[in-house]
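User: Could you check the structure of this?
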Amino acid sequence: MKIQLTYERPAHIDTELLVVILDENKTFYDLSGSPIGEIVRRVERDIEGKKLKTSYFTALDAKLAPKHLLVHSTSLNRTFNVWESLKTLVAKSLRVAQDHGFSRIAFALNTNDAAAFVGKAVEGIILGGYTFDRYKQEKSKADKLRIQLAVLEDHEESNKQKLSRYTLVSNAINEARDLINEPGGVVNPEYMAEAARKVADRYGVMRLVHAEHFERIDEAIAREKAIKKWRRAWKLELIERENPDWSDLFEHIIGA
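Assistant: Sure, the predicted structure tokens are below.
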């Protein structure tokens, strides 16, 4: 799977599927001057008028650069807040694309409102594209997806930072999911040690100074996300409270 930022206008992107996400309070797309914009506005009116109660998918005019259009609305499912809704709808878009045999997808996030959500889109793509097919004959084709995020150049530095950070975190979560999905007979202490060494080598980690045990992966992921939002001083306090000498805990945990 390849994710790229683009500053090209969404209506001009040569893609098999253009994805637009609607929200009642925020505007994530700018399709002004394009006939695609009129289609999206009509869909939005139908959703507001309760005429449409599901996501909208259609083939576009052959003269247009995008070949198909998929429109979601956060208002169709109020289970989550807008952040989680966007992430979920991005993941859903990948499944729609794969069901139709598409490999090139573009997401319209080219507004100031959307700038803060670029990271969530990346998270939705990587987590939504996850499959554990190591022992299956038929492999997932998610690695062949080519995804473009159409964003505003005014937020270039922030866009790049969010792409990098959320890619790293989301891939780490998927690596944890791989460990959980491995058969119990495979994941022995030696296997865990090797997996930890590979992660350390990949990210330049020299010492493990803090670790917490959880019975469930979702609890561990929630805790990791919470700590990542902490101030640096709070993180240092946590480490020094449990490990004042900053000792390497790796061998202790593997041998536990």
